[in-house]
Amino acid sequence: MHMVILGVDPGYAITGYGVVSYEKNHFKVLDYGAITTKAHTPFEQRLLTLHQQMDVLMERHHPDVMAIEELFFERNTTTAMGTAQARGVEILAAAEANVPVYEYTPMQIKQAVTGYGRADKNQVSQMVKMLLNLQELPKPDDVTDALALAICQAHTGVNSAFAAVSGYQYGRYGKKEWDK
After folding, report:
1. Residue 1 — very low, low, confident or very high, per pLDDT cuts 50/70/90?
2. Closest Cα to residue 91, out of 83, 174, 144?
3. Which pLDDT value is given to residue 131?
4. What is 90-117 written as a DSSP string?
5. What angle (nearest 5°) sits at the alpha carbon of residue 20, between those of residues 17 and 25?
6. In sequence order, what are the residues at sequence separation of 6 or more whose Cβ sits closer than 8 angstroms to the Cβ of residue 166?
7. How far apart, in whole angstroms, are the C-alpha atoms of residue 35 and residue 16?
8. SS3 17
9. For 97-132, b where at least 16 C-beta lie within 10 A, e where not — what string?
10. What SS3 state is found at 65?
């Protein structure tokens, strides 16, 4: 089965994206890059830019699925909130284009790309380069991470267990609201 996958490493300053075609265990890179916003731009304008650029990607590539990283922050809640809002805008763009969204933890991505869930960043980067037959690693790291997400999606397949959930308080990690 042929599938066009958009991998997204969410962020409000830098959002990495990678678009790959996957068919019969073969990858073809279609596009990759970063959507960036300037630091002193009003936040709502940064989100608008992200949304507009995601719309362009959806229109240009017509992905079959989008894979996005789940957010886990231990320290900087200010960054976490901004990134979560950016992630929401990016998921909204997929929903508007009728593209299903799947989400993966960093450990799941590492496992799918390298075979080892605790692989370091360099190991993941080298496998992305090898699996996608790239001459050099894309910069910034957010782009490589987005391509890793696309590889993860290809290796995982369209599995409802990884579909984006309605929220962390209910979804995959806890009791569903309707089960109460």
Report:
1. confident
2. 83
3. 96
4. HHHHHHHTT--EEEE-HHHHHHHHHS-T
5. 140
6. none
7. 6
8. strand
9. bebebbbbebebbbbbbbeeeebeeeebbbbbbebb
10. strand
Q: Which residues are catalytic?
A: 9, 69, 142
pLDDT digits (tens, 9 = 90+) for 121-171: 999 999 999 999 999 999 999 999 999 999 999 999 887 777 887 555 444
Distance in angstroms (rounded) separating the CA atoms of residues 154 and 97: 20
> What is the rounded distance in angstroms from the CA atom of residue 61 to the CA atom of residue 64?
9
Q: Which tokens go with 107?
A: 């450990």
pLDDT of residue 110: 96
Ordered domains of the chain (ranges, CATH): 3-179 (3.30.420.10)
3-state secondary structure of 68: strand
Q: How many whole angstroms separate alpha carbon 81 and alpha carbon 153?
A: 25
80-125 confidence digits (pLDDT tens): 889 999 999 999 999 999 999 999 999 999 999 999 999 999 999 9
Q: What is the pTM of this model?
A: 0.89
128 neighbors 137 (Cβ within 8 angstroms): yes
